[in-house]
Amino acid sequence: MTFEGKRVAVTGAAGNLGRAVAAAFQAAGARLVLIDITEASMPGAETRSIDLTDRAATQAAFEAIGAVDVLCNIAGGFDMGPAVHETSDALWDKLFDLNARTLLNTVGAAVPAMTEAGGGAIINVGAGAALAGMAGMGAYSASKSVVVRLTESMAAELKTKNINVNCVLPSIIDTPENRAAMPDADFGAWVAPDALADVIRFLASDSARAIHGAALPVAGLV
């Protein structure tokens, strides 16, 4: 699986999964554009510091970046919350901004150039929690379910333009932060970031050219 000569943009590139995704594509020969609100760096990669919740800033940044062949929307966030009936406007807005608005702003900025260049692939990151609500996770589950619906709609809109749009639905990702938050959990059952990155890279490859609008669970042993 090679991405020689391909430009791959990774949002949320400073995070655990973002770094793993960038490494997977770099190993396959891609030219990387790393995007995050904080500094993300990798030798040989182009980097951009962007607040993806700001539509105008995102648009301006992608006009400077130009067309990319692959867009990996890794940016997002998680918070436990209270019961649904106790959910604050602040928590609701935070999770929808991080998980849905960043996606909407990024594809709005990137898709026109991708279309003009002849096509590409877009991979979004949902969550297993998008499939079923759980106590204390109403706002998060709702925001990630939006990612799935946007993925399906985009796939229907863009597949005739030679753009594949799919998403992955990870369970708990094995990160230092999650280990610290759940020290008694079975870490071996969680999804390793590099394993999830391999799935994302597959969905961006020619081998997945016939897949449109998939929401692929990546649950490890959970």
Largest sheet: 7 strands, parallel
Distance between the termini: 28 Å
Report helical residue fraction: 40-55%
What is the number of domains? 1
Strand composition percent: 15-25%
Strand count: 7
Give start-end ranges of low-pLDDT stretches: none
CATH homologous superfamily caption:
NAD(P)-binding Rossmann-like Domain
Q: Could you tell me the CATH topology label.
A: Rossmann fold
Write down the overall geometry: globular
The CATH class turns out to be Alpha Beta
How many helical stretches? 6
Architecture (CATH level 2) name: 3-Layer(aba) Sandwich
Spatial strand sequence of the major β-sheet:
3-2-1-4-5-6-7
Describe this structure in a few short sentences.
With 222 residues, the chain is α/β, with parallel strands linked by helices. The protein contains 6 helices and 7 strands; from the N terminus they run βαββαβαβαβααβ.
Description:
With 222 residues, the chain is of the alpha/beta class. It has one domain: NAD(P)-binding Rossmann-like Domain (Rossmann fold), CATH 3.40.50. It has helices at residues 16-27, 55-65, 89-116, 138-158, 176-181, 193-203, and strands spanning 7-11, 31-36, 46-49, 70-73, 120-125, 163-170, 215-218. β5 (120-125), α4 (138-158) and β6 (163-170) form a beta-alpha-beta unit. α1 crosses α6 (193-203). It is globular and about 45 Å long. The chain starts with 6 loop residues before the first strand and ends with a strand. The model has no long low-confidence stretch (mean pLDDT 96).
